[in-house]
Amino acid sequence: MTLLAAPAVLVIVALVVIPVGWLAAQSIYDNGFTLEHYRRIFTEEVYWRSFALTFRIALMVTFLTLLLGYPVAYAAAHAKRPWNVLILACVMLPFWTSVLVRAYAWLVLLQRTGVANQLLERFGLITEPLAMVHNELGTVIATVHILLPFMVLPLYSTMQKIPRELMLAGASLGGGPLYSFLRIFLPLSLPGVVAGLTLVFVLTLGFYITPELLGGGRTVMISMVVSRNVELYAQWGAASAVGVVLLACVLMIFAAVGRIIPLDKMLGQK
Amino acid sequence: MKTSLLPRLAFGLVVGLVLIYLMLPVLIIVPMSFSSTRFLTFPPPALSLRWYAEYFGSPNWMQGTRMSLMLGVLTVLIATPLGTAAAYAISNAQNRLMRSLHMVLMLPLIVPIIIVAIGIFFVYAKLGLIQTLTGLVLANVMLGLPYVITSVVAGLQSFDKTQEMVARSLGMNRLRAFLTVTLPQIKASVFAGAVFAFISAIDETIIALFVSGGQYQTLTKRMFTALRDEIDPTIASISTLLTAASFLLVLLAMSGQKKEA
Description:
The structure holds two protein chains of two kinds.
Chain A: H1 2-28, H2 36-43, H3 45-78, H4 83-95, H5 99-110, H6 115-122, H7 136-160, H8 164-172, H9 177-205, H10 209-214, H11 222-231, H12 236-258, H13 263-267
Chain B: H1 5-33, H2 50-57, H3 59-92, H4 96-105, H5 107-110, H6 113-127, H7 133-157, H8 162-169, H9 174-203, H10 206-211, H11 219-229, H12 234-260
């Protein structure tokens, strides 16, 4: 029976395990064993600044997706037909739209002469166009947009399973709507919250296309450090070491959260 | 439980605004693609099909499109049988080894793509697989496998395994029993997995940036390069077509699954 899985496992080993292993080997071997590349990550400003920026953006994006995603998931889980279908469709359509297409749309919307600035100017809210793209703000706006479905979907599937009777029971015992929500619904939705937070945070750590296109060359996230070291400077050892550190962060987060929520449940959303 | 009107209205407003934010890119791209000018004004001054003409008339864009479609088809042809076989093994052998193998098969979803991409770039550089079709197809099969496996495992979960056992007890060998009894009943899940693997191959950009090139450049690599240099409205027309295509494919896959359920 296991043999049936062998070809698929072979593909994954050849194209994930071996390449990543190669990367790890290259990060500590440069004409002999060396930890030079790792030393530079922790001592050279370019590297740790980029790590700090990446974690800051990831935190912001995670917080914003939760803030925007929770009400949407709640509405999708409670609205009647056809509203719930409409809400889910609005979440799923961008989900299956290419990341490049969405990055392009945000470039068009947010640039100096873009739609957002035109509208704001027409309504007299601003006199000078705002710089909303080619910086950190543009990156965050587009990243939140791309990752919002990864927050909404686990939240929705958790909320759907919360029995309505519990809220009614809470009300019959004299709890107001807000009290019942805070004491009953919110705690029961926490597994979905944790799954969503983890997915969004980890995915943001590895984001490449969006910051590259919307960051304007100044928002250098970790994945961009990796690719520049390969493409521009041919520093394979340095690129590998940064990649290994990023992977270690991701694996540690999954391992920590995996103790609370089974990993395959979490990845099922993707 | 009745909540008063005002909070309900406020809540509805918040949800509505978030949904608009979600739909905004699609809502903006489609009218832009029919614009008559190269300037990104909204709403467009007049309608035209010039950006579609530009796209279909450009040898470079057409080469990228042909390449991406071929890549998608080849990826599906390989990833679907491999993934279905693996999913069958996973749902029939509930042992420790299989559970660890299942995790290994989900690795493409766990490891950040940029890391996989440069790892593959290093390995391909040694093997001479850079700028080859083989290299691109292999990488996309790897990315597509988790989608096929997840979809088919879910399909097999709702399938009654005793049917296959009956067929085998009546003398069919395992392969025939699978092909004639099991497969017809999970075909919508297999199809859905294949569709997701196809979309994933068409959309894939990061690995293509490193390993595709020359005559084997994918559409997304060309789009990415064009976007980095300047905003060419042709991309709006390509984006509209891409979005419509993936939307239709997903609808097709979901309607198939619904019928099965």
